[in-house]
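Pilot study result, target chain (103 residues):
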Amino acid sequence: MGNKIDSLLIDDTLYQTEIPEESRNKRFSVFHDPREVRATIPGTIIDVRVRKSQRISKGEVLLILEAMKMYNKVEAEIEGRVKEIKVSPGDKVEKNQIIILID
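Predicted structure:
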């Protein structure tokens, strides 16, 4: 069947695009569950600033993740209660790994 030709409009400019056959029926997940706090980059857990059952607010710093010699604050996207902490200081994590669960 070949590639499907489609159009994409960006800033008043129309671009022709090709979608390969093997990519047309793939499902892409653009939404994530904010109750599952995930590592956005691979790195090492430096400090966990919350404890199980603790009430947290949106924007509260949950932990510090070191990656490429930079410290990154991981913040809560929602308010709730810490259900489970899946990491400890010194743990290495991969991108998208679940590190904290929130109820």
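One observation from the pilot: The CA atoms of residues 55 and 85 lie 13 Å apart. A full batch analysis is planned for the follow-on phase.
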